[in-house]
Amino acid sequence: MITVFGATGTTGAPLVDTLLAKGATVRTVTSDPSKLDALKAKGCDAVAADFTDPAVLARACDGAEKIYLVTPAHLDMRQWKANVIKAAKAAGVRHVVVATGLGASPKAGLTFGKWHSETQELLKQSGLDWTFVQPTYFMQNLLWQAYNIAKDAVYYDDLGGPVAWIDARDIADVAAEALTAPGYEGKVLV
């Protein structure tokens, strides 16, 4: 079984669909209990979980061979991911595919890059098999600028230069491959 944390998010939702299409048994984890019925209707086991509740995280990891881990961008995301890694290790999960970001490094220029690096190092030290999916900026994030583009015909870029955008569905396809095919353990997929 594969447990997908962030199953209703930008990469998690298409990942769930891709895994189900591949015939995988999927447990989905969302922080929004109102989405459980829709996830169950797809044929998934579904759990509502708070990233700070060890008992619920343990239940979400129980019986899983692999997990996909992504959290919302949040000040507590490092601790949330650490909590899941701890629960995964205790549950006997073998392989964790974690979505971080391009340029994750202790020397990253962006705070999120440093935070993602901390999670990567924690996962490496856990003894679990790991794969890091490091996408660039999601094309779906352009929708955040829709109002400004419509109002001012301007796209405000705070990224500091040219950026290669990627569709979140492509990120989900990469994660699905890492979760269902052998040979991705210990790999960084940029």
Automatic annotation (TrEMBL):
Matching SUPFAM superfamilies: NAD(P)-binding Rossmann-fold domains (SSF51735)
Pfam families: NAD_binding_10
Domain named NAD(P)-binding: residues: 6-182
UniProt superkingdom: Bacteria
Gene3D superfamilies: NAD(P)-binding Rossmann-like Domain, UDP-galactose 4-epimerase, domain 1
Xref: InterPro entries: Ergot_Alk_Oxidoreductase (IPR051604), NAD(P)-bd_dom (IPR016040), NAD(P)-bd_dom_sf (IPR036291)
Full protein name: SDR family oxidoreductase
The species this protein was found in: Sulfitobacter porphyrae
